[in-house]
């Protein structure tokens, strides 16, 4: 066997592990999939109620601030990219840029929260509450539940910020780091579905 073949056979198992690697731990994936299942039921329920009173839902939707929704979408997409880069750096054993990347993701999440407070305040000042009609009941329920998950995600990112300062991560620490990143991606994914569903569907 040539030296090239020996080197290739030595590298192949590691490459196979990387290709088949599932980030995080099984527990976090059970939580994520369960959470997404609950949101799927809520999204389906929203669509059922919408089909029963399309005019009400369309008219109520006109009072939402689509610009805020779009900005929040871009903020979460940017934050997810920063988390991807941070996890990649930690996984490669070069975690030096990871704290700054995670801090950037936290900044995006905080900006999302500020816009959400401004949006909610504007609705309440205009006399719009969950009791206004069925559409706004779903609007506050779905966006509020998502926002709660985002706040949990910010707590997770704060843990990742501390963890990212380590020079080395053992297998368990890496799994927790990856799992935290996966949770944040779930928050992003839920909003990507929620934004067009609530703000744009017509």
Describe this structure in words.
The protein has 202 residues and is an all-alpha fold. Helix content is 83%, strand content 0%. It is built from seven helices and no strands. It has helices at residues 3-20, 26-52, 54-61, 66-91, 98-125, 134-163, 171-200. Helix 2 (26-52) packs parallel to helix 7. The longest helix has 30 residues, at 134-163. The N and C termini lie far apart (65 Å). 26% of the residues are buried. Residues 1-17 have low confidence and may be disordered.
Name the poorly predicted regions.
1-17
How many extended strands?
0
Radius of gyration, taken over Cα atoms and rounded to an integer in Å: 21 Å
- Using the alpha-carbon principal axes, give the shape: elongated
Encode the helix/strand succession as letters. HHHHHHH
Major sheet size, sense and barrel closure: none
Rounded average pLDDT: 86
Helix content: over 70%
InterPro entries: Cyt_c/ubiquinol_Oxase_su3, Cyt_c_oxidase-like_su3, Cyt_c_oxidase_su3-like_sf, Cyt_c_oxidase_su3_a-hlx
Pfam family, one: COX3
Keywords: Membrane, Transmembrane, Transmembrane helix
Catalytic activity: 4 Fe(II)-[cytochrome c] + O2 + 8 H(+)(in) = 4 Fe(III)-[cytochrome c] + 2 H2O + 4 H(+)(out)
Could you give a short description of this structure?
With 202 residues, this protein is mainly α. Helices cover 83% and strands 0% of the residues.
Feature tags:
202 residues, mainly alpha, 0% strand, disordered N terminus
């Amino acid at each position: 066997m040539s030296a090239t073949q020996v080197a290739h056979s030595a590298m192949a198992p590691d490459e196979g592990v990387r290709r088949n690697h599932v980030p995080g731990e099984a527990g976090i994936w059970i939580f994520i999939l369960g959470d997404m299942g609950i949101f799927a039921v809520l999204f389906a329920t929203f669509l059922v109620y919408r089909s029963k009173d399309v005019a009400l839902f369309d008219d109520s939707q006109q009072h939402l601030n689509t610009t805020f929704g779009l900005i929040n979408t871009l903020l979460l997409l940017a934050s997810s990219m920063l988390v991807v880069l941070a996890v990649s750096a930690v996984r490669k054993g070069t975690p030096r840029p990871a704290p700054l990347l995670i801090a950037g993701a936290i900044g995006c999440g905080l900006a999302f929260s500020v816009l959400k407070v401004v949006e909610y305040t504007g609705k309440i000042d205009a006399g719009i509450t969950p009791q206004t009609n069925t559409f706004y009941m779903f609007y506050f329920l779905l966006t509020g539940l998502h926002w709660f998950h985002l706040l949990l995600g910010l707590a997770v990112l704060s843990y990742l910020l501390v963890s990212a300062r380590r020079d080395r991560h053992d297998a368990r620490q890496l799994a927790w780091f990856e799992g935290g990143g996966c949770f944040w991606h779930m928050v992003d994914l839920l909003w990507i579905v929620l934004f067009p569903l609530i703000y744009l569907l017509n």
